[in-house]
Amino acid sequence: MATTITRLGLAAVLALGLTGQAFAHAHLKSAAPADKSTVTGSPSELDLTFTESLNLKFSGVKLTGPDKTAVKLGDPGLTRNDKVLIVPVSSPLGSGTYTVEWHVLSTDGHKTNGSYTFTVKP
Fold this sequence. Notes:
Strand content: 35-45%
Oligomer: single chain
Radius of gyration: 19 Å
Order of helices and strands: HEEEEEEEEE
Largest sheet: 5 strands, mixed
Helix content: 10-25%
């Protein structure tokens, strides 16, 4: 009986330890423009807020336009405890749906990536 309880306790401790590691990854918390949003006029920058601090050197964003071509972006930067990735949009965006593809490296060494879309209307 005591052996069974010890094994269950050990399993619970291991499970909690692994769960803590999973939460250490930088996940996209919010974005501006937001996922699936429609904005009037062209945004001057993309603001992506993450759950963990980022390593700027190994983080970035690709913006693809309605015609599936890459949109020129400025150099990214970090703000607010290195959790907000700010990427300037180099020229005005025309009407249509845009795809944001992001990849980040959190300061604890975990890589994550994802994508979302937003629409620009005149």
